[in-house]
Amino acid sequence: MEKRPRPADLQRWSREVARDPASLAFLPLADVYRRQGQRDAALRLCLRGLERHPDHPGAHALLARIYLELGEREKAFDEWGIVLRLDPSSFEANRGVGFFHLERGDPGKAREYLERASSRRPDDSLTSEALAMAMQREAAAQRETAARRETARREAARRDAARREAAAAGPADGGGQRVDAAESRSRTATRRDPARIFEPLESETPFKGALLLDGHGLLLAGRLGSDGDGRSEALGAIVAGAVEEAARTATMLELGGWRGLLLHAEDAVLHIAPLRTDNVLILAAETSAPSGWVVRSAEAAAELASGFLGGENE
Amino acid sequence: MNEPLRGALDRLSRVPGVQGALIVDAQTGVPVLTELTELVDGTAVAALAASLFQRSSRSAMAADFGKLEMLQLEAENGHVLATGSGELVVVVLAELDAQLGLVRLQARRALEDLA
Question: What is the Cα–Cα distance from B28 to B47, expressed in whole angstroms?
Answer without folding.
Answer: 7
